[in-house]
Amino acid sequence: MNVVLYTALALLPAAVFVAAAKALERWSRGERRSRGRRPAYAEPTGPPIERLVADLRRLGRDYSRIAESDLPRRQSRLRSVTLAYDDTLSACCTALEIPAPGRPPFDPVQRLEIEATLAQRGLTW
Fold first, then answer.
1. Average of per-residue pLDDT across 41-69
2. Closest to 96 in 3D by CA, of 38, 39, 56, 36
3. Is residue 125 part of a domain?
4. pTM summary value
5. Is the separation of the CB atoms in 85 and 73 below 8 Å?
6. The CA-based dihedral angle spanning residues 10, 16, 18, 19, taken in that order and rounded to the nearest 10 degrees
7. How far apart, in whole angstroms, are the C-alpha atoms of residue 57 and residue 82?
8. How far is CA 113 from CA 32, 51, 119, in A?
9. What is the per-residue pLDDT across 59-113, written as a single tens digit (0 to 9) for each?
10. What is the distance between the alpha carbons of residues 50 and 123, in angstroms, rounded to a whole number?
């Protein structure tokens, strides 16, 4: 009997701490318990499309600026900007629910096809 009581008293503080930590984590993320209800609206995931379009414009300008410059390690800079551009194109496809052909980096033909598809959906940058 004493062993059972000792074990319960030894584990009780740890159990209280774990429960409090989970409650604090849930509270800090703003989660609430759902009681079988779903929200009436779906919250968008990812950055807003306006920000993605602004990023595409900025990355296009950066690519042109770097391509025309005499900066050191120009090729690695161009590769980095191209990868960021491809990633942003992929995010635009996700935001507009367009299936993207794989993961970046895209080859030039894939990139052009994605840009054309986004332009057909009304996206301009």
1. 87
2. 56
3. no
4. 0.64
5. no
6. 150
7. 13
8. 42, 21, 10
9. 999 999 999 998 899 999 999 999 999 999 999 999 988 887 788 889 999 999 9
10. 10
Report if residue 1 sits inside a domain. Answer: no
Q: Which residue has the tokens 């030039």?
A: 108
> Which of 15, 31, 50, 24 lies closest to 123, judged by CA?
50
Separation between Cα atoms, residue 89 and residue 85, nearest integer Å: 6
DSSP helix/strand/coil, 38: coil
User: In angstroms, what is the C-alpha Rg of the chain?
Assistant: 25
Whole-angstrom distance, CA of residue 52 vs CA of residue 46 = 10
Please tell me the distance from the alpha carbon of residue 100 to that of residue 46, in angstroms, as a whole number: 16
Q: How far is CA 56 from CA 7, 13, 61, 64, in A?
A: 61, 53, 9, 12
Domain that holds residue 115: 49-120
CA dist 27 and 14 (Å) reads: 20
- The contacts of residue 64 (CB under 8 Å, 6+ apart) are none
Task: Tell me, yes or no, whether 79 lies in a domain.
Answer: yes
> Is residue 18 a part of any domain in this protein?
no
